[in-house]
């Protein structure tokens, strides 16, 4: 029994998002100190992206979350990054080690004439397990927590109402998702962007990210591009 537990633990470790990042040539051997993150504050939008609306979410490994939102009608670019911590900067080695209190997050740029915030909440909750505190699939730690970073009172109210309705309907027995004000977002290093698309042979992508995306697609075909 002990041998079986150790073996399963080994497989679990291999399939985690943080360990999978080591497969990337940019991060192998260590440091990404030369890769700069870009901070976007609450009153800013990313000047490099032309989109009339933006939303911020976290629900586990950002490679998975990015791929899910990018598959949805009305969504443009989705940027992987870090949000929710108090540290004045965010880099992958620090965040993945749980040293900044940031969560792996995404900035979802969308056309509000084609998709509304409530539908984004449908995508958010429909593509994760919000009942697991500080965990999503094989990834554990506060950096993988489920979070909604609202930018205004309307987003806050819609998020709280959506959670209340999910609980009322019994969709989930409990919801651990935190609903907190957006403060800042740090775009992740370049090699994290569009990671699932660029690294189809990565072990984590094949074992975790792609199945999560396919499960979402099967559940909500009407939302797909």
UniProtKB/TrEMBL annotation:
Signal peptide segment: 1-20
Keywords carried by this UniProt record: Oxidoreductase, Signal
Domain Peptide methionine sulphoxide reductase MsrA positions: 55-204
GO MF annotations, alphabetized: L-methionine:thioredoxin-disulfide S-oxidoreductase activity; peptide-methionine (S)-S-oxide reductase activity
Catalytic residues of the enzyme: 61
InterPro entries according to UniProt: Met_Sox_Rdtase_MsrA_dom, Met_Sox_Rdtase_MsrA_sf
Broad class of enzyme this protein falls into: oxidoreductase
Domain of life: Bacteria
Translocase keyword on record: no
Reaction equation(s) it catalyzes: L-methionyl-[protein] + [thioredoxin]-disulfide + H2O = L-methionyl-(S)-S-oxide-[protein] + [thioredoxin]-dithiol; [thioredoxin]-disulfide + L-methionine + H2O = L-methionine (S)-S-oxide + [thioredoxin]-dithiol
A Pfam family of this chain: PMSR
Alphabetical list of Gene3D superfamilies matching this protein: Peptide methionine sulphoxide reductase MsrA
Protein EC: 1.8.4.11
Keyword Signal: yes
Annotated function: Has an important function as a repair enzyme for proteins that have been inactivated by oxidation. Catalyzes the reversible oxidation-reduction of methionine sulfoxide in proteins to methionine.
Family to which the UniProt record says this protein belongs: Belongs to the MsrA Met sulfoxide reductase family.
Protein name: Peptide methionine sulfoxide reductase MsrA
Gene that encodes the chain: msrA
């Amino acid at each position: 029994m002990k041998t079986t537990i150790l073996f399963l633990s080994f497989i679990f470790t291999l399939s985690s998002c943080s360990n999978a990042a080591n497969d990337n040539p940019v991060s192998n051997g260590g440091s990404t100190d030369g890769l700069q993150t870009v901070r976007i504050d609450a009153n800013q939008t990313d000047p490099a992206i032309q989109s009339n609306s933006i939303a911020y979410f976290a629900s586990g490994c950002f490679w998975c979350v990015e791929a899910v939102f990018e598959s949805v009608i009305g969504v443009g670019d989705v940027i992987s990054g870090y949000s929710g911590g108090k540290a004045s900067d965010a880099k992958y080695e620090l965040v993945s080690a749980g040293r900044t209190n940031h969560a792996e997050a995404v900035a979802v740029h969308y056309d509000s004439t084609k998709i509304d915030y409530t539908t984004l909440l449908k995508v958010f909750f429909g593509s994760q397990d919000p009942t697991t505190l500080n965990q999503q699939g094989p990834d554990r730690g506060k950096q993988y927590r489920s979070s909604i970073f609202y930018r205004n009172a309307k987003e806050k109210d819609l998020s709280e109402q959506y959670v209340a309705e999910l609980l009322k309907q019994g969709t989930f027995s409990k919801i651990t998702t935190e609903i907190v004000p957006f403060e800042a977002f740090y775009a992740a290093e370049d090699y994290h962007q569009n990671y699932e698309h660029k690294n189809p042979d990565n072990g984590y992508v094949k074992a975790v990210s792609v199945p999560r995306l396919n499960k979402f697609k099967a559940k909500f075909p009407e939302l797909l591009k």
